[in-house]
Amino acid sequence: MAITGKISPVEQAIARSISYLYLEYQILSTNQDILRTSTMAVTPEITSPDESTIAGISEPVIYRYFETLNLADFQATAALFAVEGVMHPPFDEEQVGEEAIAAYLQAEAKGMKFHPRQGIFETLENETHYKVAGTVQTPVFSVNVNWLFVLDAQSKILSVKIKLLASPQELLGMRQ
Predict the structure, then answer these.
(1) What tens digit of pLDDT does each residue of 52-61 get?
(2) Of 2, 4, 58, 151, which one's alpha carbon is 20 to 30 angstroms from that of 48?
């Protein structure tokens, strides 16, 4: 599909997101056997009745991450990351280090509420991977989100990748 003429930054971001979603769909489709035989601990598809719990997750730093975000204490959120910790936002460049992460959150996350619901994890030799599903409520809309955390042996966040789980129609609706 060729795009002609000028498109706004929002339209560019939506187009990138649609491409990412399509690529993720292709990867998941071709790796179904791997996903079925994964050693990850999987929790049932339930939502927690208590907003302070994340089904399947007991790691305190994950809870603290969401607690500090919801309190808009972005410096405390950034302090949870390792020295060279990385945040991968959905539409922006990665943010590396405590100062960059705190500044990014201060600029972009104000007024948002984060509602993690459930998660899975996998422990490797020197790190643990967590996938947490939930929603983010902005002043304008709500969107389903996956957070993909990698923690080191000291429970510092090495990285968190934030993925919006929205259909192309939903992404286009966010434009307005």
Answers:
(1) 799 999 999 9
(2) 151
Q: Given this structure, which CATH class describes domain 9-174?
A: alpha beta
- Ranges of each domain in the chain: 9-174
Paired tokens of 111: 């007024």
pLDDT digits (tens, 9 = 90+) for 111-155: 999 999 999 999 988 899 999 999 999 998 899 999 999 999 999
Residue 49's CB is within 10 A of a number of other CB atoms, namely 7
Q: Which H helix or E strand runs over 85?
A: strand 81-88
Residue that is written with structure tokens 């996998």 in the block: 122
What phi, psi does 111 have (nearest 5°)? Answer: 80, 0
The helix (run of H) or strand (run of E) holding residue 14 is helix 9-30
User: pTM for the whole thing?
Assistant: 0.69
> What is d(CA 136, CA 69) in angstroms, rounded to the nearest whole number?
11
